[in-house]
Automatic annotation (TrEMBL):
Gene Ontology terms, MF aspect: D-lactate dehydrogenase (cytochrome) activity; D-lactate dehydrogenase (NAD+) activity; FAD binding
InterPro entries: FAD-bd_oxidored_4_C, FAD-bd_PCMH, FAD-bd_PCMH-like_sf, FAD-bd_PCMH_sub2, FAD-linked_Oxase-like_C, Oxid_FAD_bind_N, Vanillyl_alc_oxidase_C-sub2
Keywords from the UniProt entry: FAD, Flavoprotein, Mitochondrion, Oxidoreductase, Transit peptide
Source organism: Populus euphratica
Subcellular location: Mitochondrion
Catalytic activity, EC: 1.1.2.4
GO biological process, one term: lactate catabolic process
Homology family: Belongs to the FAD-binding oxidoreductase/transferase type 4 family.
Cofactor(s) it depends on: FAD
Pfam family, one: FAD_binding_4
PROSITE patterns the UniProt entry points to: FAD_PCMH
Top-level class of the enzyme under EC nomenclature: oxidoreductase
Name the UniProt record assigns to this protein: D-lactate dehydrogenase (cytochrome)
Length: 566
């Protein structure tokens, strides 16, 4: 008879008593009349794992029972149950300050980082505080990074990550700092890797319509570089966003209705994994069926699986001609209905943006304008001159059938640029109404057929609130934002802002939507993921995270809710 016994859940605190365990076991055998001398040789305790033992003696008739009753405590689950509701990221969380443990940074690591980065690192408090507090978000953390490094190459990033992994020190990748859900917080201190020095265009393939860039380049700077070649990169999130950060958050923007999100416009990545290895996720071919889609795994991972060091992007031809149009509506539902009708008509619009009357008022205050303060739709049509004008006339007819008015359009380049500037700076315009407040920004997205219902339902709650709230929507793909202005130091403000946000998120989820269409999860949206995706999906994410990052150094405390256990 051969058997294998595993004491698989024996905690490390029992390791010092293994000798006593062996002694007790052999004593048990002797009291049962067994010849322990005969069985000592085939009975082995593994040197690699002292809790595994095997016995191959066929003359050993024993039953492990009665006097040999051993009780072991199960190891702790791979989660922090203490952070379950109502902690940060847990279900029902309403906290804004992200908690986290902090350990002293080893001097050996500091010396290693100095050798790698030379002068491109800082332990200055102001620099660390700047990188530890997002510029465009009310989210905060109890700690800030211990050191900020500015790598200049993929090799330096790899060496930095290897050193941090060796010392088990947290890493937070840092791009353009335009994220708004606490993605770049450092709740456990550690090392902030600022990618701003890696902003080169490594290769442009005009005939293939793709470009290879480093992650620190901004999308606006990239388009300036591409313009002389008649090409552009079609995603347009907030000003200041960098390509690496856009990949990490799986962002999109106003052009996503025509060109898709970041997921659809990245061909390949190079990524430094948590152990320092460098992985290329795909070839430069426009399509491939070779193996797991590692590119899409990393896009949207928010720095929790690795540091992006190179991105190959799909490009588009600059449109021959475009027309920008605006019109007003008596209600926000009328405006949303027109957005849906336009998409169903089959017209290939490149932008459909919706602003409510409060947002238009903010624009007037901030820019000293006199726009009619009604719910407003903005369109962009592209193609040949004849085709763009034809689309404009078709949409004008749809608008007239839905109580639209004040339809205007522009073809002059400067006039078009001025109109879209109004939309791109809408968030900053909101602060003109409440300069001392901060903004909680919702990012719900629903199937297009539910958009009008969701916006109408949300608008009633927003208008009844004592807080100033505006609505901005990428109406062509069902994604809309509310900007809720509040004072995070006032408890009643915080609770009301959270109530409104919860209302919109849970309304969207009830319509088979999502809590975040383009801003990502960070710390702010973790609490909604279990309801949206289910616990098994989150456990799968946790297993992937643990497999790639067993020391949990990559942007810890983000994306995966802390109450999820495996």
């Amino acid at each position: 008879m051969a058997f294998t016994c595993w004491l698989s859940r024996l905690r490390s605190s029992y390791s010092k008593t293994i000798t006593n365990l062996r002694t007790s076991f052999f004593h048990h055998l002797r009291t049962r009349g067994a010849n322990t001398t005969a069985i000592t040789s085939p009975y082995h305790f593994s040197k690699q794992n002292p809790f595994r033992f095997t016995c191959s003696n066929s003359l050993l008739p024993i039953t492990l029972a009665g006097s040999l009753a051993i009780h072991f405590q199960s190891p702790p689950p791979l989660c922090d149950a203490s952070l379950d509701s109502p902690g940060i990221g847990g279900k029902g969380s309403t906290e804004f300050v992200v908690k986290g443990s902090h350990k002293h940074l080893p001097q050996e690591l500091i010396e290693e980082l100095k050798a790698i980065c030379q002068d491109n690192m800082s332990m200055d408090y102001d620099e660390r505080y700047f990188h530890g507090k997002p510029q465009h978000s009310f989210h905060k953390a109890v700690n800030i990074p211990d050191v900020v490094v500015f790598p200049r190459s993929e090799e330096e990033v790899s060496n930095i990550v290897k050193s941090c992994d060796k010392h088990k020190v947290p890493i937070v990748p840092y791009g353009g700092a335009t994220s708004i859900e606490g993605h770049t917080l450092s709740p456990q201190g550690g090392v902030c890797i600022d990618m701003s020095l890696m902003q080169n265009v490594k290769a442009l393939h005009v005939e293939d319509m793709d470009v290879v860039v480093e992650p620190g380049i901004g999308w606006m700077e990239l388009n300036e570089y591409l313009e002389p070649h008649g090409l552009f990169f079609p995603l347009d999130p907030g000003p200041g966003a960098t390509v690496g950060g856009m990949c990490a958050t799986r962002c999109s923007g106003s052009l996503a209705v025509r060109y898709g999100t970041m997921r659809d416009n990245v061909i390949s990545l190079k990524v430094v994994l948590p152990n320092g290895d460098v992985v290329k996720t795909a070839s430069r071919a426009r399509k491939s069926a070779a193996g797991y889609d590692l590119t899409r795994l990393v896009i949207g991972s928010e720095g929790t699986l690795g540091v992006i060091t190179e991105v190959t992007l799909r490009l588009q031809k600059i449109p021959q001609h475009s027309v920008v149009a605006m019109c007003n509506f008596p209600t926000i539902k009328d405006a949303a209905d027109v957005a849906i009708a336009t998409m169903l008509s089959g017209i290939q619009v490149s932008r459909v943006e919706l602003l409510d009357e409060v947002q238009v008022r903010a624009i007037n205050i901030a820019n000293d304008k006199n726009l009619p303060e009604f719910p407003t739709l903005m369109f962009e049509f592209i193609g040949t001159e004849a085709y763009a004008r034809e689309q404009t006339l078709i949409v004008q007819k749809i608008i007239s059938e839905h109580r639209g008015s004040d339809f205007v359009f522009a073809e002059d380049p400067e006039a078009k640029k001025e109109l879209w500037k109004i939309r791109k700076e809408a968030l900053w315009a909101c602060f003109a109404m409440e300069p001392k407040y901060e903004a909680m920004i919702s990012d719900v997205c629903v199937p297009l057929s539910h958009l009008a219902e969701l916006i109408s339902r949300s608008k009633k709650e927003l208008d009844a609130s004592p807080l100033v709230c505006t609505v901005i929507a990428h109406a062509g793909d069902g994604n809309f934002h509310t900007v809720i202005l509040f004072d995070p130091n006032q408890e009643d403000h915080r609770r009301e802002a959270e109530r409104l946000n919860h209302f919109m998120v849970h309304s969207a989820l009830s319509m088979e939507g999502t809590c975040t269409g383009e801003h990502g999860v960070g710390t702010g949206k973790m609490k909604y993921l279990e309801k949206e995706l289910g616990v098994e999906a989150l456990k799968t994410m946790k297993r992937i995270k643990n497999a790639l990052d067993p020391n949990n150094i990559m942007n810890p405390g983000k994306l995966i809710p802390p109450h999820v256990c495996i």
